[in-house]
Amino acid sequence: MPMADSNRKPFREFPLSLRIAQRSFLFAILIPIVLRFMFRAKVGGIPMAVMAASGLCVLTGIIATYFVLIRYPYIGMIDPADGDLYAKHVESISVPIWRILRVFGIAAGTLAIAIPFLDGNIKPIEMVWLMYAATLFLFILFLAFRYDRLEHPAVATFLRCTLGLGVILCPIFIPGLIIGSMRAQRILDDAEAKLEAEKRQSRG
User: What is the tally of structural domains in the chain?
Assistant: First the structure.
């Protein structure tokens, strides 16, 4: 269960790896946008440098997210008191907007799967894309119709780490999500068993 308001820790006390993951994905988006306005004139080397900086942020975010999924897979269940960008800007999105995003996500996933079939001749590289798109589509369907933060803590942790932006990269994170889900379930089962043992001991 989410923690009570009085017991919530500020986000700065959450694991450093979680904060690094969030900031990395945020900077991966902000760097190209900010530098686009800062350097309106075409200057040689800047586009490549921007892409490299943004790519480095994405890579850092992926590594940090993997670490969090394996080390702290349950942390997506915990509500911080403040400072969490995901809680502030993503979880606070209204229900109608979520419904629009759900429809858009399903439509985009369907289109991504259909693209390799448009010319009627699927190439080997398109098979790789097809597997990626199919995995992405299934994950979008899972988020749209099955996902629950408390029932799927590793997925909640993944979404918090990546600010939701990691959804388009979800096939890359499948191994981490599987390991994280197994660890989270084991940790929660151990905690529940310990709580039951303490209750029985207090009654005795």
Answer: 1
125 Rama class: left (phi>0) / alpha (psi -120 to 50) / beta: alpha
- Among candidate residues 9, 155, 2, 1, the one with its CA nearest the CA of residue 83: 9
> For residue 109, what are the domain limits?
5-203
Report the alpha-carbon distance of residue 193 to residue 176 in Å, rounded.
Answer: 25
Report the Cα 158 to chain-centroid distance in Å: 4
Sequence-separated (6 or more) residues with CB below 8 Å from residue 68: 15, 17, 18, 21, 75, 157, 161
Q: Per-residue pLDDT tens for 12-30?
A: 889 999 999 999 999 998 8
Interhelix angle 124-145/170-203, nearest 10 degrees: 30
Task: Kindly report the pTM of this predicted structure.
Answer: 0.83
